[in-house]
Amino acid sequence: MPFGQLVVGSPGAGKTTYCAGAKDFLAALGRKAHVVNLDPANDGASRSPYTASLDINTLIRVQDVMEELHLGPNGALLYCIEYLEQNIHWLLDGLRALLDHDRDAYVIFDIPGQVELSTNHASLRSIIQQVESQAGYRLVALHLVDASHITDVSRYISLVLLSLRAMLALELPHINVLSKIDLLGDVVGGAHVEDDDEDDDDDDDGGAHDLASSSMPGARDDGMLFNLSYYTHAQDLSRLLDVDATSTSPRHTRLNERICELVEDFGLVGFETLAVEDKRSMLRLTRVVDKAGGYVFAGQGGSSSSAPQETEQERYERFQPGSLYATTGMVPPRAGAATAAALFGTAAGEVEGWGDAGDVQERWLDNRDAWDEHEAKASKAQADEALERRVYAAANKVIREGVTAAPE
Questions:
Q1: Among 273, 296, 324, residue at a domain's last position
Q2: Mean pLDDT of the chain
Q3: Integer CA distances (angstroms), 41 to 48, 51, 135, in order
Q4: What segment(s) does the record annotate as region Disordered (predicted)?
Q5: Total structural domains within the chain
């Protein structure tokens, strides 16, 4: 069964950047991935950071629609998606061609940034249903939102409502993601205050700052009001209203109260975090997606001869502490074999390993400079070690060849 991701989100959330990063990251794990560009405003090679295996611009382009039908950018984009729905055979034939070439083809769909497509427009949902039913794909929706929105109460409440609406509209296994988390420290200006209590694990209030001081005028401009875990769990939203009430009109406050009640009644919204250039962040999100979609339980199909062959370097690195292999157990799998995460995990529950909200806050907010310095030193040490191994290997090769060539 082929698997894939549907990457949706608001403009500027980093969808295209994530698609390119995910394709490269999965390739590093030995999993070939294809990006299908369904954004007709993304005109491919001139601006896109990836090479699409299937590109909607070969079927229809936003610029052509704007010129011929005299529509604005948003109207032209909706027309393009409706046109794709009417010509779904183009997409299905392309996906079948990918499967004919690689029956385990993992596909990442890059979706346009118009939020109405994933919240209240019927065409995208119709396209998804046909891809699942006729092409046999098992998809996971990945909804990206810019992490900087959590620094403002009203914007955070809005994005929580938007995430809930997308979950209900798409009807897919769904993961909400706070993207660009590595840039959040620049937004809050390093003003995030750590709790006096060092043990946050038992902190039922999500590590809140003192609301009396947070609710002072101008407090929202100084950084986050709560620890990151509060925003990723998206629970007890009424605490935000205690702060927001001091800076908004009563009508606005009542509206936020009703939205928070609605979101909490459903109890569905939560967030993962993402920094595309951070290997550990990408690894955690990949494991979450694999678990949500069932890939982690199905493994890779195909014959064992199609599995990637380990190099000598990969065999050496597999058991090094902190390596990608040691962390994920990504050994070339047998045909149909489940991964290590499937054997020791369940469909529900947290993903084990680095990457929960506490780890992310420590890395990107509280001690970002120290971590940057530490990782730079570790990267240099790793490069020096790799160079040393190559030098020793070359020297040993010369010695062996010399011994072989020596006269008896």
A1: 273
A2: 80
A3: 11, 15, 25
A4: 192-216
A5: 2
